[in-house]
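Input record (one chain):
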Amino acid sequence: MQLSADVVFRKTEKGQHELRHRSHGLSPRARQLLILADGRRRYADLAKMLPEPQLLACLAVLEDGGFVARLDDGAAAPAAAPPSADTQSLPQARRRVARVLLDAVGPSGDDLAMRLERCASIDELRALLPAAASIVEAVRGRDASERFVQQVGEP
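The corresponding structure, as predicted from the sequence alone:
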């Protein structure tokens, strides 16, 4: 699979369902990538977060499985669906993500936990998840980072 640095992926309805219900058994990396497929991040941005061979493999699984779709050049991401009944409120999501981060890394995550608690929107909170996963990986290793991503899920 060859991809331009400017290709952007977005979650499909099936992808959003998978994040809520975990019914397809995606690998932790594929799930992490699904979380990051927000309709704004370019392939070049994603390539900074995952090694390219693993990134390409996960994108292939997600795209072939119908969990993500490419946005056409210049197209804006479709408006987000209204929150479902099982979606957490922003304050609950902020507290949960900050708690999972602090449980994983202790005081090393204090600064980011405070930033998480100040997020004004779910999108802002989601944008900080890669940084949180990176801190967990730096302090506790890749396995802990994958567990963090699984525990956080889709806020």
